[in-house]
Amino acid sequence: MTDIEKLVAIEAVRQTKARYFRLMDTKDWEGFAAVFAPDATVDYASENPAASNFKASGAANIVALVRQIIGEALTIHHGHMAEVEILTPTTARAVVAMEDLIFWPAGARNRTLHGWGHYHETYERVADRWLIKSLKLTRLRVENT
What CATH number does residue 113 fall under? Predict the structure, then answer.
């Protein structure tokens, strides 16, 4: 790949991650599913033993899991400082710093969550689209109320 092709690919990966955050926060589940490769895997468990079941494989199962976790909550996700490495013309990996705020409706088990951490991801180019192939969220800090 030329340097220009790599830069174009890096920007495409960053755009995919931006869509991931926006589509989750706006609860556009059809669009959210479309940012994942069909055989994608996610691990949102971090180091929290209570969240050990926060893993899924396959775009449809990932959407179902995320809907289960955030339900009717208002979510605000920010991704920062994406480090993207293009490995081949069809594969990439990235580390994205993140911050999230989650506000659950009255009567929910938790009221709020404010967290900071990193997404560790791989991407796959399918046709002309870069899709999330694997995702693992690690957290540096979480504040719950």
Answer: 3.10.450.50
